[in-house]
Amino acid sequence: xxxDGVHRIQAYLRQDSLPERDFATxxxxxxxxxxxxxxxxxxxxxxxxxxxxxxxxxxxxxxARCREVARAAGVEIRYxxxxxxxxxxxxxxxxxxxxxxxxxxxxxxxxxxxxxxxxPR
Length: 121
Known about the structure:
Number of strands: 4
Structural class: alpha+beta
Oligomer: single chain
Radius of gyration: 20 Å
Number of helices: 5
Strand order of the largest sheet: 1-2-4-3
Largest sheet: 4 strands, mixed
Order of helices and strands: EEHEEHHHH
Distance between the termini: 44 Å
């Protein structure tokens, strides 16, 4: 299953459809790895949107850190390394998105009425 944090889509991998190196790489992937898939989009019998992979790219650079955050239930780590929490925890991402929309709406409301935003130095 591939996710950009908001949307999800599954990838269909066949050994005869991918270059040997790409297929071998997929066997090594773990939760939190960054993956890109190229191929034909289709729907499965259960009507699930799927990419029939013909090429792929991946990066394992973030997987160890993501797993660390996922295992560490400590609030302090989650707040210090917010970007990792947003990758690993969908609930935190939803709260973050709602907060950003609320702040943007308040700014628009005040801007429309001629208010200026002032930030402390």
